[in-house]
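Below is a concrete protein record.
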Amino acid sequence: MSTVTNDIVAKLWNLCNVLRDDGVTYHEYVTELTYLLFLKMAKETGTEDRLPEGYRWDDLESKAAPERLEAYKVMLIHLGTHGSILTKEIFAAARSFIDKPATLTALITAIDAIDWYSAKTEGLGDLYEGLLEKNANEKKSGAGQYFTPRVLIDSIVSLMQPKLGEVIQDPAAGTGGFLIAANH
């Protein structure tokens, strides 16, 4: 990962401290951040038209702090049943683990302050993978058993030297790290 990506991942990981202070567990905070990041990325990448009107990042951000948390919880449920097929898949059975309105406000403010232009040029998938790697490295999360380090992925792909048109099997695809590395 580049320095820009590492810096953004570090900023996002620091948001996990905000979530932990609200009682959100290691198993829940990557999911919680993912929902918010999908909303923000839809805005940043110009794909908000895939989200129903009234259920977008700016709609959430414009709510007054006291009512924002309840609006966010309603938004998650609505997005799981409305919008594009992809939107419904991403938000299927979504729910928020946040209890305090101030926590959601802090997350939205911090996510808004990140330089997303730099993130887009680096690749948004790297950010998500970086978050998962940080989570896997946390002994308390127990997620390490589900994460293949990038160095190992690159080594295996280098040894296998896959060619265009060949079948690649990754039965535990997760973030699709092997497929992405094979494509490069």
